[in-house]
Every structure is written in structure tokens, then in C-alpha cells.
């Protein structure tokens, strides 16, 4: 600007508004001596000034400093600056470092400063440690809460990138389900509920298969006509008529208080409790849907009177989980998730395997 016909060439002094005094001193040192002192505190300002004054050799010095000083606390910032100034090799190096040290990176303060797209990019990085998904969840919650009002709307988009099947029962219960951001979101609760049902289904199928084999072996030793006995046993359960809806055919006309009394009623007969709870659930849904506009607000209270622990997994999957009244209520889903935790074995979650 001083050697061409710009206004600065006619002035006795030039004002550098975007460059601080200490940064300008570092630039001048390098221009006159080919040396300057770079530190964690000044390297980013020196890099910006080097780009402003078009000093490629100093830019390269800053880049080398980045590579030598990279750690879990600064790698995100280094990646950001390298990307801004088109240092492609250094961007790649930073991303490789981040992938290998993802757990530490997710805990860094710089992570909280990232924009949404950068957070998504980090969450998509592959890592073979199961605990990484726990770190991802905690970091997503922390990132959202850091600017809660502005970021809350993005929480579900990020939650979708967490692989819940890789999380332990304990973590799902104590952290994921306990997180208010999850419990307040219908979509998040649906994802959690679906994951739990999937894990329980896998565990139950394996357990029931092995259990049935042992059950058959015992029966064959006692009953000569075991096949007919098993068929009768199954038929008796499926066609049990001991339990009757307390309200009878007119229960759809009941007021909410009467319906709640009905759902709390018990039978002294020896009946299959799962069939009782299924019938109560169906009655609660039917009563609500009979006048959906007026009664929908009561459904959560009615659902709390049903004991999900007694419902079969098939009924939960085929009926309850598909019911819109459940899927539209975080309170109902939370109750259902709580009951499912008692069914899921501790070690059913998946483990990654290296390719």
C-alpha cells in the first residue's frame, strides 16, 4: 500500500485497525530478522496478520507450530484456522488427531464453541471404543445447554447421531433417560423406547428359545402325551375368560373418575396378569378415543394405572409402541421406558469390532 498510488503512500503514518500492537511487533521482528516468538497465546493472531500482509513464510511457521503443539484442547481450533486459510494438509492432520483422541476432544471447552455443522461432523467420526458414545451423548447435552435457548431446537438432530444400542443399561437409565432434554422431547423418547424394545427383543428371543427347549425336556419325562399338553397349556392362557372388564359394555360412557376406579380394580381369581393388564390398556385406549378431543388430556393418568411390567413383549411391540396416544406423550413413554429397564439385561448392548 506504500509503494503504489494508494492514499497511504501519501501519509506519514498508517493505522492498522485489525492488528494489535504485540502482533505487529511479532510481524516486524520476522520481517527484519526472519525470526519471531510464537506461543499458544499469539499464534492465531500472528497467522491472521500474516495472511493480511501476505507473508507466506510466516504462515508456514504458524502451520508448523500448530502441528507441534496440537493436543486435545486446541485441535478443534487448529482445524478451524487451518480450514479457514486453506491449509488442506493440516486440516487432514487435525481431523486424524481428533478421530484418535475423540474422547478428550469431546470434553474440551472448544467443543462448546463449535457451530452445529462442526458438531455433527465430529459425532459422525468412527471410533471403536464403546465408551465413546457415552462421551458423545454427554457432550451433545453440554453443547446444547451451553446456549440452551438457541441450541435446544437442534438437540434431537444431534441425538439421532448417538448409537443407543452401544450404550449400557446403566448409562441409558442414569444419564440418557434422566436427561431433561431427552424426557421433554417426544422424538428423543421415541428413539430411546425403540432402542430398548429392540435390545429386549433380541435378549428375550434368545432366552425364550433356550428356556423352551429345557421346558420341553422336563415335560417329556413326565407326560407321555407331552405335545397335546403343551398345546392345551398355550390355548388355556390365550383363551382365559376369568377376567372381565369391570365397566362392562357401557364403560365408554363412564366419566374419567369411574374409568380410573375400573382400572384400579383387582380380581381375586387366579388369572393371567398379563391378560388383565392388556385388557385394561385396551379399555383405556378405547375410552380415550371414544371422545379424543375431550379425553386425550386424561390418557397419561389412565396409563399410569396400568402395570407395563406385566405386558408381554409382543403386546408392547405390536400394540403399545404403535399407539399414537403413547407416541405423542413424553410422560407415557417415560413410564414405559422405566418399566423396560427392569427387563433388559445389563450386557445386551452391542460391542464394536475392529474391521
Automatic annotation (TrEMBL):
Which Gene3D superfamilies does the record associate with it?
A: 1.25.40.420, Potassium Channel Kv1.1, Chain A
SUPFAM superfamilies registered for this protein in UniProt: POZ domain (SSF54695)
Give the matching PANTHER family.
BTB DOMAIN-CONTAINING PROTEIN, LD33804P
Q: What is this protein called?
A: BACK domain-containing protein
- Domain named BACK is located at 75-177
Tell me which species this is from.
Clavelina lepadiformis (Light-bulb sea squirt)
Database matches in InterPro entries: BACK, BTB/POZ_dom, SKP1/BTB/POZ_sf
